[in-house]
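Students often ask why inverse folding is considered easier than folding. One informal answer: many sequences map to the same fold, so there is more than one right answer. In these notes we will look at a single instance of the problem. The structure comes first.
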């Protein structure tokens, strides 16, 4: 078991399952599926806690009923919420539109975020720090931890020195063509020369990992997605867990792709604990194509 600090959002996701494909200038039908725990930080934290790790989430929620519910949901799945800030803002809320193929569209309705970075990171014990935030003021804090913890960070933002991390993760959909063609330069620039690996995900096409003199590729198994929300967050959880367990990147990438693929088979934003347990026993389940 490792001590993991996750920096990111915790939200309530309101989901609508569409009866037809999402399109501009259309009158669409859908079914409200209710509200569920979401947010990129929370999604990854939930999966890591289910894998047996001691997880602290650095996030912010409002002093409202939604914030109370988010905290209760996090505590129920074993997340340490003592470092979550309560702010006089609405709790982060998103509308998740799920089309008939399981692909999701996220509409951020409210975002709860502190004005300053979470300085309490300096004193939190951590074996791993995962950054699932687009804040541009985290670099000085992360720099204080690089010698003591494995730092994994999701991109964007993509700017020189903005993410001093040992492993960078990005979706190909979030990168421009130049970055995808030269991931090594992307990693060196964004991490200030610290990154050992740059991992780029490509949805159903799997993922690739790039080091100075090595490239690894893993294809995803073919499935019929139910809901692709949080697949990238599950991927990150699988990668972090595998690296903590001492797996080389080739094996860790396989684990991450299995986590990400499995997440698409559940009508949830975060990977359920039962699914994580099956994955750890190397027993993927759900709706194979």
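Output (designed amino acids):
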């Amino acid at each position: 078991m490792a001590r993991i600090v996750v920096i990111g959002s915790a939200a309530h996701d309101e989901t609508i399952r569409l009866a037809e494909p999402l399109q501009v200038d259309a009158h669409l039908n859908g079914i409200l599926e209710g509200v569920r725990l979401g947010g990129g930080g929370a999604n990854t934290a939930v999966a890591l806690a289910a894998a047996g790790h001691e997880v602290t989430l650095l996030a912010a929620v409002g002093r409202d009923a939604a914030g109370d519910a988010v905290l209760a949901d996090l505590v129920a799945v074993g997340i340490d919420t003592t470092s979550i800030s309560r702010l006089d803002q609405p709790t982060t809320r998103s509308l998740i539109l799920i089309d008939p193929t399981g692909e999701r569209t996220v509409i951020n309705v409210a975002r709860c975020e502190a004005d300053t970075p979470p300085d309490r990171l300096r004193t939190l014990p951590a074996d791993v720090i995962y950054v699932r935030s687009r804040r541009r003021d985290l670099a000085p804090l992360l720099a204080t931890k690089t010698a003591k913890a494995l730092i994994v960070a999701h991109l964007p933002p993509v700017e020189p020195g903005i993410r001093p991390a040992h492993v960078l993760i990005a979706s190909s959909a979030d990168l421009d063509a130049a970055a995808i063609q030269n991931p090594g330069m992307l990693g060196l620039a964004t991490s200030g020369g610290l990154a050992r690996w740059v991992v780029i995900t490509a949805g159903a096409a799997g993922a690739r990992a790039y080091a100075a003199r090595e490239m690894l590729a893993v294809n995803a198994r073919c499935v019929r997605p139910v809901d692709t929300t949080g697949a990238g967050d599950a991927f990150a959880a699988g990668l972090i867990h595998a690296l903590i367990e001492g797996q080389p990147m080739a094996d860790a990438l396989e684990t991450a792709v299995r986590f990400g693929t499995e997440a698409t088979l559940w009508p949830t934003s975060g990977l359920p604990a039962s699914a994580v347990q099956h994955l750890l026993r190397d027993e993927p389940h759900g709706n194979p194509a």
